[in-house]
Amino acid sequence: MNPPTSTSSSAEPSASRASLGLMLEKVKKAATSKMTLALETALELGMKATRIYDTVQEKREDHQKLLDNLMFVTSRVLGNVLPVSDHLSEEMSKVMTELKMYDACHCSSVEDIAKLKHSVVKDAEAAVKRNGSYGAASLATTASQSIERLNKMLEHGTLQLTAIRTMALSEELADMKLKVAGSDSVLVPADLPLVEKPPHPPIFFGRDELIRTIVSALLTHESCHIPLLGTGGIGKTTIAAAVINTVAVHQKYGENIYYVRCECLLSQEGIQLALAAALGVNREHGTRAKLMAALASRSFVLLILDGIEAAWLSEDRTGVEQFLSALAGVRGLSLIITMRGALRPDGVDWIPGFEPVPPLSLDASRAIWMQISGHTDERLADLLRGLDGLPLAINLMAHRGQNMSPTLLVDTYTRIKTSLLTRGQPTRLTSLQFSIELSLNSPSMKSAPNALRLLSLMCLLPDGIAMAKLDHMLPSMQCATEAALVLIEAALVLSEAEHLRVLSPIRDFVLEKYPPGEPELTDLRNAIMEITWNSDRIGTSRSKEAIALLSAQFGNIHTVILHFWKTIPDTSQINVLHRATDRLVWFSHAASYGDCVELLEAAAVAFENHDMPLGAAQCIQSLGNALLSMDRCSEAAGHLENAERAFKAQGNIRLGARCTYSLALLLRKEARYKNSLEKLQYARTKFELVHDRAGQAQCIQTAGEVLQCLHQHAAAIEKLDEAKACFEILGDMLSVAQCAQSIGNSLRLLSEPEKATAKFGQARDALEAAEERIGNPQYSKTKGNVLASLRQYTKALTKLDEAKGVFESIGDILGSAQCSQSISLIHATQFHFSEAREQMRIAGALYKDIGNRAGEAECMQSYSEQLLMTRNYTEALDTCQSAAQYFTALGERNRSAQCRWMAGDILCRLHHFEPALNNFKAAQEMFQELDNTKDLARCIHSTANVMWCLSRPREAVERLGMAKAMFESLQDPFGVALCHQSEFAHLLRENDFKSASRAFEMLKKNFKAVGKDHELAKCWQLMGEALLRNQLFGRALGQLEEARKAFEVEEHAPGIAQCMHSIGMAAIPQRRLECAASNFVYAGSVFRQIGDKSGEESCAMFCEVLDLIKAAPRRLECEAEQKIRGYILWHTERHLYAEADACRAVAAALEKLKLEATPSGSRTVAQLDELQARPIRAKTGWRWKIGSLRKKQGDAGGRGSR
After folding, report:
1. Phi, psi angle pair for 130, to nearest 5°
2. Distance (Å, whole) CA 503 – CA 390
3. Which residues of 785-801 are buried (b: 16+ CB within 10 A; e: fewer)?
4. pLDDT by residue (tens digit) across 721-767?
5. Which residues form the Novel STAND NTPase domain (predicted)?
6. What percent of the chain has pLDDT over 90?
7. Does residue 931 come out as left (phi exceeding 0), alpha (psi in the -120 to 50 range) or beta?
8. How far apart are CA 1111 and CA 35, in angstroms?
9. Could you tell me which residues are beta bridge partners of residue 500?
C-alpha cells in the first residue's frame, strides 16, 4: 500500500507549479521600477523554488515539509504578506536581506538532491556491488540536513514577514480611521491576512442549537474556553464565523473580537506574532508579556484561533499549549479554537460537553442544497444520504447541482466518487480530496503506520464497529486499538460510545485511493461472513437475538461481501461467498430489511465469469424476488422468467417451480388473478413431482388468497382449509394461523359470524403456542391482527405495541410500519380517528423511508377513508387522488380503481355530481377489465345513487337493478341489502312514507340476517331525518331514538352523535329547549372525540341559536322558531333542490323578523342574522350565505316553508 501524500493525483504537482508561477507573476507585475533589490531577490528565490519542485518530488516523504513551506512562502508570503507597492519598508527590506541566505543554501540543496537522484537511479547497482551504499546514504543525509536548514530559515522569515505586514496594515487602518473621523463609514482593507474577521456565513443551516450554546456560554461567563473540534470540512470555521457575528456577542465584546487564521502558522511564535500585530504590540523582546498586558487591559476580549492544528501537531506542541494556557489565564478573555481532530490541547480549562462537531441532519443538508442549487427530484434524498451530512461535500455537490439534476449526480458520483467534489483550484475549502489528504498527512497519522491500513478496512464498514471488537476481527493487525485512537485523534473516524464510524465521503475516497490490503482484509471477510450464520437461528428460541445482530450489521455485511464479489474471487472462495450471500439475501427478504439488488447483480456476474450457470441462475432468481418485494414488477418479471428458463435447461424442476410461484405472486400483485391461478396450479404440479410439500402448501394457500380477491369465498375457504392441514403436518404454525385468519375473514364476509369467530380463535391458539417457543415479533404482530378480528381491541393493541417495540429495537422498519398500520386500523374501528390518523401518518413515513411505495400508497388510501369518516372531504379527496396516482405508477390497477371509486363517493358528498360520475365510470372500466365483479357491482350501485340526486330516476333504477343482479350472482346478501337500502332512501326523499315503511320491514330482516345491525340503525336514522324534514317532529323523535339505541349497542360513535344532533333539532319546535341543548352538547363532545369538526361546529352553532332564542323578547320567539325550522330543513335535507327551498324559507323568516322587530329586539335579530350569514357546513358539505342565496332566487317566499 502506498503511503499517503498531500497530493491527490499525479496532476497535482503541475497544478501546484502553475499556482506558484501565477502568484509570482502577480507580484512581478505589481512591482514598479522603484522595486528594491530585496523584492527582486524574493522573486528570484520564488522562481528557484518553482524549479526545485520536480526534484523534490523524487522523495516525497523527506521533502514534503519543504514543499509545503515553499508553497506557503510563494502563495501566502509573496501574494498576501508582502505589500504590493512602490517600495518596501526598511524593516521589510532587512528581513528580505536575511532571506537572501536561502539562495546559497538552495543551490547546495539542489546539487545534493540531484546527486542523490543520480546515485539512486543510475548507480544503485554499482553501489550494491561495491558494498558502497555509504555514498548514497551520505548524499541523503546531506540533502536532509539542507532541507531542515531551509525549513527553519523559511519559517523564521515567514513569521517575521507576517508580523511586519500585519502591523503595517493595522497602522494603515488607524490612519484611515483618523482621516474619515465623523464619516458614516470606515474603509477597511479587504485583504487583511491572517487576522481579518470573516463575515457571517450566507448559507448556514443545522447548527442553531450549537450556536445558542456557544453564545450563551460567552454571555454568561466572564471568560470561557471553547474547543470546536472535528473532521475536515465539518464546518468548524463557519460555526466560529456565525458566533462572532451574532448581535449579542458584538454587544458584549464590541471591537475586542480578534480572529487569527492559524492554518499556516507552524509554531506558537507565529501565532503570538500574528496576534501581537493585530493588537498593535511592537515586536520586541518580551512580546508575550506585552501581549498579555494588552489583552488584560481590555474589559472583555473574544479571541478565535482558527485552524490551530498545524502548530499544535508540530514539534512546538508544548510551546503551543503553554501559550494557550497563558491566554486562558487572562481575566475577561474568552477563547475559541478550531482544529481538526478530536483531542483538545492540554493546559486549558475547556468548557465540558463540547464533543467534536457532528454531521448535519438530512433536513439541514437539504436546506443547504436548495439554497445553492435550487434543483430537486426524487433522488435528492439518496444523494444527500451519500454525503453523510458533511457540509463541505454538500456545498461542493450543490454547486455541481446548479447544472446537473440529483439523479444524474447520483449516477455520476457512483462512477467517479469524490473526484466530483471539487470546485476551482484544489484547496481545503474547494476540494474534498485535498481536505481529506490534509488529515491523512498529519504527523499523528504518519507516526502510526497501521492507522491508514485500519482506516481503509473500516471504510468497508458503513455501520461502524465497536472499538472493543477490533482485535478480535483483525487478528493479523498488531496494535489495532492504538491505530484506532490515532484515527480518532485525527478526526477521520467518528467515535460514539466507543463505536467507530467513517463518514461516507471519506470512505469513498480512501477505498478508491488506499484500498485495503492483506492479510487484514481476509480477517475482516471471515469475521463478517461468520455473522451471516445467525440467519439459521431465525425461527428458533434465539430468533430475536439473531435478527437484532443481522439488522445492526447488515450494512457492514453487505459492503464487505459486495467488495469481495467485485474483486472476482477464485473458485475456492466462491462457494463460501455464495453461501454467505444466500444467508444475507434470505434474511433481507424474511425481515424485509435492506436492499440486496446490487449484491446479487455482482454475484451473478462473478458466476458467469467463472462459467458456473447454476449459481448465476440462482442469483438471478433471488434478484427477481428482491425486485418483486420492492414493487419493481416489470424488472422482476424479466429476471424470474430468465431464471425459470435457465433452470429448465439445467433440468432443475424444484428451482424452476420456485420461479413459477414467484411469477404467480407477481401476477396477483398486478390483479391478474386468473393468470395467477394458472401459474399456481403449474407450480403446484412441479412441486408434487419433486415431493416438495412446503412448496405445494404455499401454492394452495396463495390460490385461496387469490380466490378471495375474486370474491369467491366458498372456493377460497376450501383451498385455505387444505393449505392449513398441510402446514399443520409441516409444523409451520405461523402459516397455520394465517390460513385460519383468512378463512375467518371469508366466513365473516359470507355472514357467518359464529364460524368466523371460531376460526379466529384457532389462529390465536396456534400463534400463542408458537410465540412462547420462538419469540418472533412476526408472530406477535399476526396475533395482534387476529385479536382485532375477535374484537378484543385492547389486547390487540397491546400485542401490536409489543411487536412494534421489538421491530424498532432491531431496526426492522417494515415490521414497525406494518404494526403502526394495524394499530391505526384498530383505532379507526373504534372511531378514535385522531389516533388512527397519527399512526397511519407514522406508517406512511416509515414506508417512504424504506422506499416501499405500495405500503405508502396503502396508508394514503386508509388515511383518506379516515378523513371521509370525519367529513373532512376536501383533504380526503386530495389524499385519495394522490393514492390513485401512486397505485397507477406501481401498476396496481385494482387499488387504483378502488381509489377512483372512493374519490367519486367523496365528490358526491360535496354535491359535485358530474365529476363523481366521471370517477365512477373510470373505476367501472378498470374493474371490468380486471374481472372484479364485486367492486364493479358496488361502483354501479354508487352510480345509481348519483343518478337519483341528479333527478334521473330511470337511469338510477336501471343501474340499481344491474348492481342487485351482480350481488345476487356473487351470493352476496349484504350487497343486495345495500341496494334495497338505496331504494328505501329514495322513497323517503319522495316523501312516500307508506312504501318506505314496507321497505323498512324487509330491510330489517336483510340486515339482521347478515349481522349488519349498524346498517339497520342507519335506516332508522334515515327515516327519522325524513320525518324531521317534513316537520313531523313527534314521529321523528321516535325513529331517531330507536336509531340512537341501535348505534349504542354497536358502539358506533358517529351514528350516536348524528342521531343526538337530529334529536336536538326535533326538540326545538316542540319547545323542549333544555332537551335540545343537552343533546347538542353531548353530540358535540362525541364529534370532538372522533375528530369530526363539521359536526362539532354544527352543534356549537345550534347551542348559540338556543341561547339567542332564550334571550329574545317573548313576542319574537315564534318568529325565531320559524327561522330554526329553516335551519332544520337545511341540515336534514340531502337533496340539492329541496335544500334551496329550505334556504328560501329561512330567508323569508329572516325578512319577517327584520320588519317586525322592535328596537329592544333589534340586537337579537342582528345576532341571528350574523349567525345565519356564516358559512355553515351542512351534512352534504354545502356552504350557503343567505344574502347571496336571496339574490339568486329572487322570490323571498318561493315555494314557502312547508
Report:
1. -85, 0
2. 8
3. bbbbbbebeeebbebbe
4. 999 999 999 988 889 989 999 999 888 888 788 888 898 888 888 88
5. 201-341
6. 35
7. left
8. 100
9. 465, 495
798-to-822, 823, 835 alpha-carbon distances in Å: 12, 10, 15
494-496 and 499-501 beta bridge pairing = antiparallel
- Residue 993 has a pLDDT of 87
- The span from the CA of 1038 to the CA of 1050, in Å, is 19
- Residue 106 in this model has a pLDDT that exceeds 80: no
Chain centroid offset of residue 109 CA: 58
Q: Does one domain contain both 24 and 160?
A: yes
Q: Residue 788 is which amino acid?
A: A
Rounded-to-integer distance, Cα 626 and Cα 597, Å: 7
Query: Per-residue pLDDT tens for 23-49?
Result: 444 444 444 333 444 444 443 444 344
User: What does the block give as the cell for 360?
Assistant: 448535519
Amino acid letter, 103: D
The per-residue DSSP string of 105-169 comes to HHHHHHHHHHHHHHHHHHSHHHHHHTT-HHHHHHHHHHHHHHHHHHHHHHHHHHHHHHHHHHHHH
In a domain, 1035, yes or no: no
Same structural domain, 202 and 315: yes
How many Å apart are CA 882 and CA 1076, to the nearest integer?
41
pTM over cut 0.70: no
At 499 the three-state DSSP class reads strand
Domain co-membership, 491 together with 386? no
| Residue 174 burial (10 A CB sphere; 0-12, 13-18, 19+) | exposed
Rounded Cα distance between 1157 and 1163, Å, is 9
User: Considering the domain boundaries, does residue 489 fall inside one?
Assistant: yes
Is 1077 within a domain? Answer: no
Taking the C-alpha atoms of residue 53 and residue 1110, their distance in angstroms, rounded to an integer, is: 100
Cell 351514528, residue located: 1055
Beta bridge partners of 499: 466, 496
Question: Look-up: residue for cell 419469540?
Answer: 775
Q: What are 877's three cell numbers?
A: 379527496
2 sits in the region (left: phi over 0; alpha: psi -120 to 50; else beta) called beta
319 and 204 in a common domain? yes
Nearest to 500 by CA among 433, 556, 441: 556
Give per-residue pLDDT as tens, 126-173.
433 444 434 444 444 444 455 455 555 555 555 555 544 444 444 444
Alpha-carbon distances of 1013 from 907, 1017, 1046, rounded to whole Å? 27, 6, 7
CA distance 520 to 1107: 84
d(CA 350, CA 347): 9
Q: How many domains does the chain have?
A: 6
Range of the domain at 1198: 1112-1202
The helix or strand, by DSSP H or E, that contains position 1009, with its residue range, turns out to be helix 993-1009
> Do 1059 and 1099 contact (CB within 8 A), yes or no?
no
pLDDT at position 572 is 79
Point out the domain boundary residue: 907, 931, 955.
Answer: 931
The torsion angles phi and psi of 64, rounded to 5 degrees, stand at -60, -40
DSSP for 729-789 reads: HHT-HHHHHHHHHHHHHHHHHTT-HHHHHHHHHHHHHHHHHHHHHH--HHHHHHHHHHHHH
CATH number, residue 475: 1.10.10
108 versus 902: the higher-pLDDT residue is 902
